[in-house]
Amino acid sequence: MKNNWTTLISGILLFGIIYLKFFNSVTSKLIFEHYKLQSILAFIIFYITIQYSSKIAKYFYSKRNKILKNKKNNVHFGIENIANFTIGIGLIVMVLSVFGVNPLELITSLTIVAAAFAILTKEYIVDFISGIYLSFSNTFEINDYVRIDNQKGKIVEISMLKVKILNDDDDIVIIPNSKVHFNEIINYTKRDMRFMTVDFQIALKYLANIEQLEKELILSLKSFSEYIEPKSYNLKVVELKMDYLELKFQYQLKLVDMDLQRKIRKKTIREVFNFISSKKEYPAAN
What we know:
This protein is α+β, with helices and mostly antiparallel strands. It folds into 3 domains: 2-100; 121-190, SH3 type barrels (Roll); 195-279, Ferrodoxin-fold anticodon-binding domain (Alpha-Beta Plaits). It has 10 helices and 8 strands. The chain has helices at residues 2-23, 25-33, 35-64, 74-98, 103-109, 111-120, 122-136, 177-182, 210-220, 258-279; strands at 145-148, 151-158, 162-166, 172-176, 185-187, 195-203, 234-240, 244-252. The strands form 2 sheets. It has a 5-stranded antiparallel sheet. Helix 1 (2-23) crosses helix 3, helix 3 (35-64) runs antiparallel to helix 4 (74-98) and helix 4 (74-98) packs antiparallel against helix 7. The protein is elongated. It starts with a helix and ends in a 7-residue tail after the last helix.
């Protein structure tokens, strides 16, 4: 509802400014005589036009792809990022015009300064370009569960410069777009959403029998057995190190349920901890 009112007010403001600037002889003459006012009104028209164009583009994209209202995916964020960037450029031009500076002359005369500025801000430029690429690529989408570098979690936002991930501890992790683009990405959602993996390491001195650990892990998930495919349990050795093992405990859910996945993952990690604790030898009390 609030969004509809904002759109309506913006439309009325746009038509009002256009009328005063182009169709009312008194106000158009006044605006023409004051270049600062002319620049500000031109920017307002530009701003509202870009916002409307962005909303129209997102509307037709959602309609074509049958996306529910108030739902966003990568393309929506991509359109918003391009709109915000365009508005930012328009704002800079407007400020320069208000202070009596011709933007084209300034850009021409400050080529060296502009080049130096580009070098200083190259990280931001790379982040922005990477954000545009990620927005329109199919590498991952909003709500996909991914691993980027050493961070695991659900994609919740793709902005102009950052990607936001909600990890398993309900923490928001913010990663620069360039780091996302140049790092290895594992998209767990692209595979079967029911297939789950818990990675962990265990010291060899605490592990006498892998089969026993697997049985204890399966037994610990007995309360969730009605939700897990009975023959899908698998404890896999990923790599053998000098003093520890890297392991994967895998299982498959009968239904897709993100809350249930997190509960089972939490239970599994606790069971691994309990298993290790039970194998430790503590000094006798005096």
